[in-house]
Amino acid sequence: MSVAAGPLRSDRPRGRWIGRLFYGFLLLSLVVGFATLGALLVQVFVEGYKWVDLVLLFEPPSADPQIAGAEPAILATIYLGVLLLAFTVPLGVGTAIYLEEYANRERWYNRLLEVNIQNLAAVPSIVYGILGLAFLVRGIGLGRVLLAGAMILTLLVLPTVIIAAREAIRAVPDSIRQAAYALGATKWQVVWRQVLPAATPGIATGSILALSRGLGETAPLLLVGALTYVSFNPTLLGDFTALPVQIYQWVARPQEEFRVLAASGIIVLVAILLTLNAFAIWLRNRYERRW
Amino acid sequence: MATREAAAPQPLRLRASRRRWGEDVVKVVLALCALVSVATTVGIVVALFEPAIEFFGEISIADFLTGTDWSPLFEPASFGVLPLVAGTLLVTACACLVCVPFGLGAAIYLSEYAQRRTRRILKPMLEILAGIPTVVYGYFALTFVTPRLQEIGLPVGVFSAVSAGLVMGVMLLPTVASISEDSMAAVPRDLRDGAYALGSTRLQVSTLIVVPAAISGIIASFVLAISRAVGETMIVLIAAGGQPNWTWNPLEAVQTMTAFIAATGQGDVPTGSTEYKTIFAVGATLFVMTFVMNLIAIRLVRRFREVYE
Amino acid sequence: MADVSINLAEREQQLPPKEFREVVFDVKDLGVAYNGNRALQGVSLEVYRNFVTAFIGPSGCGKSTFIRCFNHLNDLIPGAVVEGKILYHGEDMYGPHVDPVEVRKRIGMVFQKPNPFPKSIYDNVAFGPRVLGMTDGLDQRVERALEQAALWDEVKDRLKASALSLSGGQQQRLCIARCLAVNPEVILMDEPASALDPIATTRIEDLMHELKRDYTIVVVTHNMQQAARVADMTAFFSITRGEEGQRTGILVEYDATSKIFTQPSDKRTEDYVTGRFG
């Protein structure tokens, strides 16, 4: 192969074909993801759009699919969301501040704490359900109530919030901290008045994404007793079912009509979660700061 | 210019005028927040292992780990966990068949082939997949994938490991793609430029330079995906079946460890009964399996962060 | 350099004689180590009230490390250890029970890169008074600080605008105003003009001349002309290499600026100011 005189086009058709084949495989990889997403959305929509109506939104469940709705489940999911934010944001941000601003990395217990949080983020959600069953429902006798569900979801998404908040706090440049210290601010004044405001968009984005993850969870709620027939609107210390659990109940029934009802419920659930996700992404793009 | 009002030296005092108790209180409060995570781990370990140990007081651990018959509800009850483990592994294997090659392919495309703008659009779209609730995937497996499998002539029933596994694989695709892509992005530009300068093609740079350099992150993404597959509940609960089945045939219905826990724990099992304790024995097994994989993944991720950052 | 020399000679005439100088900082045998590596060793000098004192030297000579000792900023770096003494009006700054917050109230700092807070111009200047509880007459305080920093006329109509919308030079003057707003006695400046263009640099230097009347200024600079233009006293730092090649900063010579630049007593200083080194 004479390099000096050779043309600049490839003279290796075999290599070119392998390259194209590889490229085709890479595209296929993406197609697998997107085609499945598309098929899923189409399937759910085609099946369920007929029954996304006032009955679904404002009626209690029933053994008769024609008049069955999901109002208690939807309300419970909203309550769970509010509680989830109220519990996770202070705990998650507090932990993140501790790790980023106060903890001495040299100390073994702080390093252990970090690994512990990373590991908790990957513990199967059903294990959190077992924790809830053993401690909250049976152990301290809270019973199968909405509050127990909210607490278990809190523990479940807490690592996600912590990790997101830490990243947001870490992204605040040190020069800001130094400037504030140099003016005589105390540590907490630096954190509260400079670091946290600057990290707020990142924290908010992470918290909303975590919220959306928590609201889509089903398995841990099954174990804290959300799989019940609830025809009344939920209270903090009463029986409850959540929207994903309601969907599961409908999917698990053999009758075709309940499958359709499940699809309708999924439309509502996915609409809520995708709205949350879109809001989080918008927030991130809107307030993204380049230092 | 006006003379400074404090021209006379302020009384000199470099000690704090008073102890700033507030600062200490804040630190304690923050540490308590952090302690919640520790308490969670301790809680999980205690909640799982205390009843599990009681359980192993009644049932021999050897029988549990080697028995091939899982029928805790029938007389004579039998507590061999292997069918549940096999079911779990079978579904996990099906999931890996999808998420490992295609997740890696998507990562290579995003990191090495896509333009910046394309990546900025494709990546969040791909992550939508990870944001869909698992109960929805379960519904999709049951009502869409299983009928399609039957249409192409596979002898699957209403419930099968393969249907649940394939859908789970797609769900995990963004996990593999995103962690692998992160580790590929951490490979220094120079390494690529060096290879391109030698006349390598994009294919060669991707497979011979970038993938080996990012290998610890890529493996971490696989391990994490496997751990997630092992721990995933709703898809298998809905689409894989409800009967323990000692089989290696993915076309059959199986019950996984998670599905067993969910199916047993959702009812009114009497506290303290052997049946109640099976939840914890299986849960502990599940926890140990995923815990080991998670630690491996965390290690590997830390390694690629250390090498290039 | 000729006009600078004349200027220098004039300026030396204006300096008060030694017996009338008031010592603000008396540094005695100061050393700093990061995780056991000595960054600076054996520094002793005096900083006088209403003087501009410049620290010059090649990069890595520890001059930035040194200036951060005056407001306990090295405390924020894990593993940093300060040895020796700095007496601030006779009070040991590194003695037991010294509170960094009290120190920083009196000793302000301006950094190398302008680092305004991502807040409004007003809030930037008001931050210091607010955290120190000096909120009476905050508006006047902010206005006076901005005037002293020669920024008031440029920003008085947009105090609520983001500080990040200002130009680099304006941002640095805002940082100076921010530091003046808490009425410090000393202003530390760590290469305050190194990220700025020549015009903005000139404005900062003019400002230092103005501020010297009311404040004591310590400035680190890598720009010798700048030291010659603004400083009354100049300290030249250099690097020694230990037996294993570790680099440690030392103080070579400290004297009136005119002396340092025209008749240094140390060969190393001469090499540096005449451009033969660094």
Can you give keywords for this protein?
heterotrimer, A: 291 residues, mainly alpha, 0% strand, globular, C: 278 residues, alpha/beta, 4-stranded antiparallel sheet, 11 helices, 35% helix
Characterise this structure.
The complex is a heterotrimer of chains A (291), B (309) and C (278). Chain A is an all-alpha fold and 291 residues long. Chain A has helices spanning 13-48, 54-58, 71-102, 108-120, 125-139, 146-170, 174-182, 187-215, 219-223, 243-251, 256-287. The mean pLDDT of chain A is 89. In chain B, strand 1 (70-71) and strand 2 (78-79) form a beta hairpin. Chain C is globular and about 55 Å long. The chains are: A mainly alpha (291), B mainly alpha (309), C alpha/beta (278).
Order of helical and strand elements of chain A: HHHHHHHHHHH
Total number of strands of chain A: 0
Provide the succession of SSEs of chain C.
HEEEHEEHEHHHHEHEHEEHH
The biggest beta sheet of chain A reads: none
- The count of helical stretches of chain C stands at 11
Number of strands of chain C: 10
- How far apart the termini of chain C lie comes to 18 Å
Q: What is the average per-residue confidence, as pLDDT of chain A, rounded to a whole number?
A: 89
N-to-C CA distance of chain A? 52 Å
Biggest chain pair interface: A-B, 86 and 87 residues
Proportion of beta-strand residues of chain C: 25-35%
Strand order of the largest sheet of chain C: 6-7-8-3-9-10
Going by helix content, strand content and strand pairing, the class of chain A is mainly alpha
Which ranges of chain A are low-confidence, i.e. pLDDT below 50, for 5 or more consecutive residues?
none
Give the low-confidence spans of chain C: none
What oligomeric state do the depicted chains represent?
heterotrimer
